Amino acid sequence: MKNVVIGGSGLIGSKLVHKLRGRGHEAVPASPASGVNTITGEGLTEALEGAAVVVDVSNSPSFEDTAALKFFQTSTGNLLDAEAAAGVGHHVALSVVGTERLSESGYIRAKIAQENLIKESSIPYSIVHATQFFEFIESIADAATDGDTVRLAPVLIQPMAAEDVASAVADVAVGPPANGVIEIAGPQQFRLDELVRSTLRERHDPREVITDRHAPYFGAELHERTLVPAADASLAETRFDHWLNQTATGNS
Fold first, then answer.
1. Which of 168, 200, 207, 242 is most open to solvent, judged by the fewest CB atoms within 10 Å of its CB?
2. To the nearest whole percent, how much of the chain has pLDDT over 90?
3. For 14-49, b where at least 16 C-beta lie within 10 A, e where not — what string?
4. Closest alpha carbon to 122 in 77, 80, 176
């Protein structure tokens, strides 16, 4: 079965291609680096020829509100049109747990627009909502940094390893379309401020984390459970401390 992975050279996409091939499926990475551009449409027709499944794990190069919205609307629209012409039977997209609770964020509004285009199309689909990746915790800190301080709300977060995200998306890709949303998350819940504080300490990062209930998260104010999934979410196995130890060993 041919799977085309849009964003196939990125963090999740490259792992996903490897996992699909390991299961005996044809997996074709598609990105501007391989001559496939979902914004201009270049290379899409050729890449999707004979594809049964298209998995979109691409991301906007800019988190600015207008740029992100333009990216997801244009890219997803072009992709769905090309899939319809190619007879693709399953569209899988990776999105974010809590999109419906994070609409104050311009980036999340762009993701909501992407999801709506998918739901309104004629192509059977599965939307995978993942919690934040372990690999992006330092990016969360960077976005909340002002000088030498990081302001974060003490809300719950249930992050997961990128490796586990790729495994879960692979499971969805080779299965039947859900025609709905599937939530995935890590096995542990943390307080966002405490998690970032301990991560920076482990990385010997001198920035001080300040607990602030009203600190924005990529433009949105958070509530206690904004970032965590429902009780029926599929939980990954990798624990944060195990991942952190592995990455520390790998970087030593």
1. 242
2. 95
3. bbbbebbeeeebebbbbbbeeebebeebebbeebbe
4. 80
Q: Of 17, 79, 18, whose CA–CA distance to 47 is shortest? A: 79
CA 14 to CA 57: how far, in whole Å? 10
Residue 172 in tokens: 């969805």
Q: Is 120 exposed, middle or buried (0-12, 13-18, 19+ CB in 10 A)?
A: exposed
Asked whether the beta carbons of 180 and 127 are under 8 A apart, the reply is yes
pLDDT in tens, 67-90: 999 999 999 999 999 999 999 999
Of 24, 30, 23, 19, the closest CA to residue 54 belongs to: 30
Q: Please, where are the H alpha helices in the chain?
A: 11-22, 44-48, 65-86, 106-120, 137-143, 162-173, 192-202, 240-251
Say if residue 21's pLDDT is above 50.
Answer: yes
pLDDT at 119 over 90: yes
CB 5 within 8 A of CB 53: no
Average pLDDT, the chain: 96
pLDDT surpasses 90 at 249: no
Q: Is the dihedral of CA 59, 139, 113, 163 positive or negative?
A: positive
Strands 216-217 and 53-56: unpaired
pLDDT value at residue 184:
98
Distance of alpha carbon 64 from alpha carbon 72, whole angstroms = 12
Residue where the block lists tokens 């050729």? 46
Is the pTM of the predicted complex or chain greater than 0.90? Answer: yes
Q: What is the mean pLDDT of residues 179-195?
A: 98
CA atoms within 13 A on the CB side of 99: 20
